[in-house]
Batch of 2 targets.
Target 1
Amino acid sequence: MQDFDYIIIGGGCAGLSLAYSLEVNHKLRGKSLAIIEPREKYERDKSWSFWKTFEHGFDDCAKKSWTQFEIKTEKGTKSHSSSRYPYQCIDSGLFYEKILNTLKKNTNISFFKHKKDIGKNSSIIFNSVSDKQENNGKLWQHFQGYEIEVERDIFDDKILTLMDFNCDQKDSVHFFYLLPFSPKTALIETTWISRMDDARELNYSDQIHDYIKDVLKIGEYKINYSEIGKIPMFNTKNIKGDNIIQIGTAGGMTRLSTGYTFTNIQKQSSYIQKNIQSMNKLNNFSIRKKYQHLDNIFLSVLSNNSSKMIEVFYRMFGCKTDTIIKFLSEESTFSEDLAVIRSMPKKIFLSALVGK
Ligand SMILES: Cc1cc2nc3c(=O)[nH]c(=O)nc-3n(C[C@H](O)[C@H](O)[C@H](O)COP(=O)(O)OP(=O)(O)OC[C@H]3O[C@@H](n4cnc5c(N)ncnc54)[C@H](O)[C@@H]3O)c2cc1C
C-alpha cells in the first residue's frame, strides 16, 4: 500500500482549498499528496457568501458581488452600502472545477474514495471530516434555498437581503436570505437558528414557496437549483492523534455566531501552506480568542432570549457599515468591537456575561 507525505481527508471546501494553496505555492514539489473524498461527482452544491475583506484568489468563481445589503424587521429596514468590502457569492461548482483542473496536472497528487485504500505511516494528515454529530440540544443554523427564475424583471440585483425577519419565528430565530443574481434570478433561503428539536426542517419547501408568493408577490417561477444544509453553532468533536491537523468546519473555522466559514478556511489554508515544514510542531490556525469569547456570550443570549434576537440584530445593524462588516469578518479594531458591543441591549448581555 502506498504511503504519502500528506493526506487530506475530505475533498470539500477546506480540503480542496488547502491542496490548491499547497500546489500553487509550490509546496508539493517532491512531495506526495493523497486526497480522500467519497463523492462520485463534483457539482454545484453550495453558495459560499461573505464580505470580501482580503484577496482570496477565487474572484473568478464568484457568481456575483454586491455593494449594498439590508436587513428587514417589523420595525423597519436597515440599509448599508460598502464599496470597500463587497459581499461576494462563490459558486461551489466553479470553485471545484478550478481547483480540480489545477490539481490534476500534478501527478504526485492522487485521489481515493476511502481511507482504507492508502497507507498512513508517517504522513501528516489534514482532516476536514467531523465525527457524526448528534443534535442533542445544541444550536444549529439550518436552511434550504432555491434559486428561482422569473419571466419579468422583478429583483433589484443591486441590493441583497441579508435577513428578512418578517416571517413566523416559532419560538426560535427565523429569517429569509435573498441573493438577487439578476433582475430575473435570485437565491432565496429559509434559515433557522434552533436546536432542531421539532419539524421546522421538514417543510422548508413550503416556507420558501409561501415567502415567494405572499411576500415577494411572485406567482409563476422556475426552480433552477436547490441547496440545503446545517451548520453547527458549536465546536464539533473530531478524531484526534499525532500528526492529525483539523481543517475546515472540523478545525473550528466556522464563526459560531454567524456560520461564516469560507474566508477562515482560506486564511487557514494560507497559514498551513506557509508553515507546512513545521506544521506538526506549531499550533493550528484558529479564530481569534476575542471573537470566540464574544460569540459565546452572543450564543448564550440567543439560547435564552430567542424572542429578543430580532431586536439584537436590528440594533447591531444600526452600527456603521464597515464596523459591522469588519466585526463579522474578524477584522475589527478594539474601538469597532466596542461600538458593536455598545449597540447591544445591555440587560440581557450583562446577565449572559454574569451567568458565564
Ligand atoms: C449548503 C451550505 C451553504 C453554506 N453557505 C455558506 C456561506 O454562504 N458562507 C460561508 O462562509 N459558509 C457557508 N457554509 C459553511 C461552510 O463554508 C461550508 O460548510 C464549507 O463547505 C465547509 O467546508 P469543509 O471542507 O469543512 O466541509 P465540506 O465542504 O462539507 O467538505 C467535507 C468533505 O468531506 C467529505 N467526506 C464526508 N465523509 C467523509 C469520509 N468519511 N472520508 C473522507 N471524506 C469524507 C464530504 O464528501 C465533503 O466533500 C455553508 C454550508 C452549507 C452546508
Target 2
Amino acid sequence: MSTRDRNCKHKLLLLLLLMIFIPGCTGKSDSSEAPLNLLIITADTLRSDRLGCYGFQGPSDAPPITPGLDQLARDGVLFTNAFAPRGSTWPSLTTIHTGLYPLSHGVRNNGQMLSSDVTTLAQRLHQKGFRTAAFLNNMIHAPHPGFAQIWSIDDELGTERKYSVPYSEWDRRLTKNALSWLSKDQGEKPFFLWLHYMEPHEPYAPSLEMERLYAPARGAKNGTMRDLGPITLDQEDLSSVDLARIQGLYNAQVASLDRSILSVLRKLEDEGLSQNTLIVFASDHGEELYDHHHYFFHACSSYDSVLRVPLVISLPSRLPKGKRVATQVELVDLVPTVLDLIGPGGSFPGDNLEGESLLPVILEDKSRKNPYVFAEWVQRGHDTPGTGPEIYVIRSEVAKFIHNPTGFQPDNNPYGLREGVGFPQEVEEYYDLTVDPRELNNLAASRQAEVEELRKILNEWVQSKLKTTRTPGSPDEKTLNNLKALGYVR
Ligand SMILES: [Zn+2]
C-alpha cells in the first residue's frame, strides 16, 4: 500500500469514527433517524425578566404570562446570562445569523446591507439541502441570503398600510402564515424556519384582552412615543402608578407574543416535529423601560437592561430538559452551536466564526472559552470603524466597563426629536455587578486598576476585529422609509 493510499484509508477511518461518535455529524437524530430541523424564533425588544421562566410574576389574578416559553424552557436549556452585541435589531439579528460580531459583519446600524462575502447560517443549510423559509415582521428589507422563501407583513398589508394595525395583528398574521407553511407536506428534506416577531416593540399597544389581564393599573400615560418621548427628554419623574401602567402595557405585549409562540410549539407537536426539531429562542435586544436616565427604548443604551436577552435552546432528544445555565454567553455563539448539533461541517468562503459552540457548556458544564461579553454602539453615518463616535462594552461575570472615548451622547429617538440632547453616557463607566447588577453606581474613578485591565482586553478585541471588518451596503429608499416609520432614522 502506498503512503497516499494509507493516508486515504486513515482519513476514511477517521471520517467513519467521526460520523459514529460526533452527534449530529450525519444531520440525523440518534433516536429516530429522522433529519433534524431547525426553528429559530426571535422576538423584538424582549427583556428576559418579563418571562415566567426567568422568574417574572404577573398579576396574581391573571393566567401565567408566558406559558409557551415556560414550556420551551422545561423542554430545553435556558441561559440566565445571555447577551446581545448591540441594542439594535439589524446588527443583532445579523450576528445571530452569521456568528460574527457587528464590527466584523459590518451591519452596525439598522438598514445596512450585509456584505456578500459573509456566509449566513441559512446559506450553509440551504446548500446542504435544507428547505429554508423566513417569516419576518422587522428587518424586512435586508437581503437575508440563503432563505429560499421569505414572507413579511408587507406582503399582506403593504409597507404603508401595515402601520394602521397594531403589532399584535402583525404577529398574529405571521403565526398564521408560518403554521400554514408547517402544514404543507414537508417531504424528506429537513427545514430551517426563522420567525421574527415584532412584539413587544414600542408602541406598547396590546390588544384589549391582554391589556385587561396584564396591565390593569390605571394611569395617565400610555405606551406611545408621543407619551414616552417627553418623559425621557424632560427627565420627568413618573409616579409608581404611571410606571406600572406603562410597564404593564409592555408586559401585555409579551403575553401576546407568547400566545403566538405557544401556537407554533403546538403545531410542531401536532405535526410530529417536536422531537426532531432544534428550537432556538432569543430576542434581538431588551428594552430600558425607565431603568436608566428616564429612557424607555433600546437603541441608545449599552446597559444590561438592553443587552441582556432571553435564550432557550431545545432539542429534547439530544439536550437536557429543564437545565439552566448561568455562564454568560453571547448571541454570536448560536451559529457554532447550531452547526455543532445539526451540521453541516465544512468551511465556507470567508469563514471565521467568532462565537463558540455552547455544547461543552450545556453537556459538560465546562466554562466558555471566552470569559467576556463584547458589545458596541456606533453613530449612524460613521459606521466605518474609527471615523466617528463609537462606544465599546466589555462584561466579565463580575464587572462591566463601557468605554465612550469621544464622550458622545447617543441620539436615536426620542432624543432625535430635540436638538442637542442625547442618552447620557460618561467617557468611562465601570460597574461592580456583584453589588450593583442594575448598573447605577459608576465606579470608574475609584477602580482605575480594574478599568485599565478591562480597557486593555477591550482594545485588543477591537483591534482584532478591525482586521476582519466588512463594509456593508447602504439602505435603499424603501428601506429608509421603513426605518423612519419605525423611528430608527430621522
Ligand atoms: Zn429590535
